Amino acid sequence: MTAQENRRTRWATLPVALRAVIIGILIALIPANVWPPLLLSLGVPLAATIEVVFLGLYVWWASGAGPPERTRAARGVAFRRRALSPAQWFWGVLAAFSFAATVHAAIVLLFRFVPFPIEAFRHGYDFSFIPSLPLRWIAVVVSATSAGICEETGFRGYMQQPIEQRHGAPIAIVVSSFFFMLLHLTKAWAMVGMVPIVLGAGVLLGLLAWSSGSLIPGMIGHVVMDIGLFGYWWTGIAADFRARPISETGVDRAFLITCVILATTLIIVLLAARRLSRITVSPAVAV
Fold first, then answer.
1. Whole-angstrom distance, CA of residue 7 vs CA of residue 5
2. Cβ-based burial of 21 (10 A; exposed 0-12, middle 13-18, buried ≥19)
3. Rounded to the nearest 10 degrees, what angle do helices 16-32 and 160-167 cross at?
4. CB distance 252 to 246 below 8 Å
5. What is the DSSP letter of 156?
6. What is the C-alpha separation between 222 and 144, in angstroms, rounded?
7. pLDDT tens per residue across span 212-270
8. Gyration radius from the chain CA atoms
9. Model-level pTM?
10. What separation in angstroms does the CA of 178 have from each of 21, 196, 201, 202?
């Protein structure tokens, strides 16, 4: 037996869940960290162009194309490659935008209970070196797209899907959401109140991937959510959050409206996921 064959044999003896966690983290984090050095070293126009090409190649490879040939089928399954029906597109897009609204409403509510720690949220997200507002928005969109595509491919695809096959969806969603949360706890903004929000976001994204049989709804929702996070909460390009905690203002109309939005959008996500699970009855089909 050659050394390479011996390594493959040892790898195959590891539990499926452990292999899925390792591969999922690598598939998510390595590609997601290509964009920051490009942005810092090349500037927005050139960096964004290169990143778009890179993401296209990344999706092409992760979905089962390119070398090595022996892993093509497995990569296609892990990516949940399938053609979505019009009904799946409708419910998937509805769930995606409702998911993004749910997360942002939850963050708003959090900072109606405690003061918004603006310095912690802006730490590491300084776009002031970018010379114009349009270029900053391009950086926001590319940053969000990179994170959404790479993290959904890694966590809800390559990590969650194999665990689903072996242990079922509930365990797979919990595992992928837990490691998704751990990744984000390294950020300066990861205060205690953000932990359930990040964990909940991971659970909802995992539910969308499982119920739709595709990464596309989760990618859409993740990108839309991150555009808001980058543009508003992390950089202040769109505006600054100025609402004060209800301990200072009392329970006002804006607080109540946010509660209604959170409840409504969360219900829509869950109903859409339920509808998706009912119409997603066939196994993944190659596009």
1. 5
2. buried
3. 170
4. yes
5. I
6. 8
7. 999 999 999 999 999 999 999 999 999 999 999 999 999 999 999 999 999 999 999 99
8. 20
9. 0.94
10. 11, 11, 11, 8
